[in-house]
Design goal:
The protein has one domain. Helix content is 67%, strand content 0%. It is built from 7 helices and no strands. The longest helix is centred in the middle third of the chain and has 22 residues. This is Type I-C CRISPR-associated protein Cas8c/Csd1. It comes from Nguyenibacter vanlangensis. InterPro entries: CRISPR-assoc_prot_Csd1-typ.
C-alpha cells in the first residue's frame, strides 16, 4: 500500500526538476496540505481523496475495489474523462452518508465545495483532458496530503466513525 513517503519522493523529484529548469515562477511544492496551492493537478488529487473518503464513509472499510484501486491512474492522467464518473458515484455515496452519518456528510460536502471553488473559481467546470507528468506527480502529492489531513491515522479510520466530534469539526473550519 502507498504511504506518505511517496508524496515526499515525488516532491523531491519535482523540486529537483524545477531547479534544473530554473523555474521559480511556479512556487514551491508544499510539504503538507496547502489549500491555496494553485496547481490543478494538486487540487484534483485533493478532490479525489475527498471522494474516496465519501466512498469509505458510505460503504465502510470492507470495499473490495476502492476508488483508488479503480480510478487513480486514469484520474491523474486524464481527469476530464474519469472525473464525471467519480463525481456521479461520489454523489451516490454522499446520499448514503447523509442518511447514516449526517455529521460526516456535512464535513465532506464542505471540503468538496472548498476544492471545487479552487478548481473553478468562476465559470463552468472545465477539467483538463490530460495532465502532463509534472501535474500527475502533483496530483499524487495533493492526494496524499489530503488523505493525511482528513484521515490522520490508519487509512480511512476516521470515515468509519459515526460522526465527527467537535475537535474534527473545528479542524475543518481552520
Amino acid at each position: 500500500p502507498a504511504t506518505g513517503w511517496h508524496a515526499a519522493v515525488l516532491r523531491a523529484v519535482l523540486r529537483r526538476a524545477r531547479r534544473g529548469a530554473n523555474r521559480s515562477d511556479k512556487g514551491d511544492i508544499p510539504v503538507s496540505l496547502d489549500r491555496d496551492y494553485p496547481n490543478i493537478g494538486y487540487q484534483l488529487g485533493r478532490l479525489f481523496a475527498v471522494y474516496e473518503l465519501a466512498q469509505r464513509a458510505a460503504l465502510g472499510p470492507g470495499v473490495k475495489a476502492s476508488m483508488r484501486d479503480r480510478y487513480f491512474g486514469a484520474a491523474s492522467a486524464t481527469p476530464a474523462g474519469i472525473f464525471a464518473v467519480i463525481i456521479r458515484n461520489g454523489q451516490n455515496h454522499l446520499a448514503n452518508v447523509r442518511k447514516k452519518k449526517p455529521g460526516w456528510a456535512a464535513v465532506i460536502e464542505k471540503e468538496l465545495e472548498e476544492i471545487f471553488g479552487r478548481i473553478i473559481p468562476a465559470g463552468p467546470l472545465s477539467l483538463p483532458r490530460s495532465l502532463p507528468l509534472e501535474h500527475q506527480a502533483e496530483f499524487a502529492i495533493g492526494y496524499y496530503h489530503q488523505r493525511r489531513e482528513r484521515i490522520g491515522g490508519p487509512a480511512g479510520a476516521v470515515a468509519d466513525q459515526d460522526a465527527p466530534d467537535a475537535a474534527d469539526t473545528a479542524e475543518t473550519e481552520e
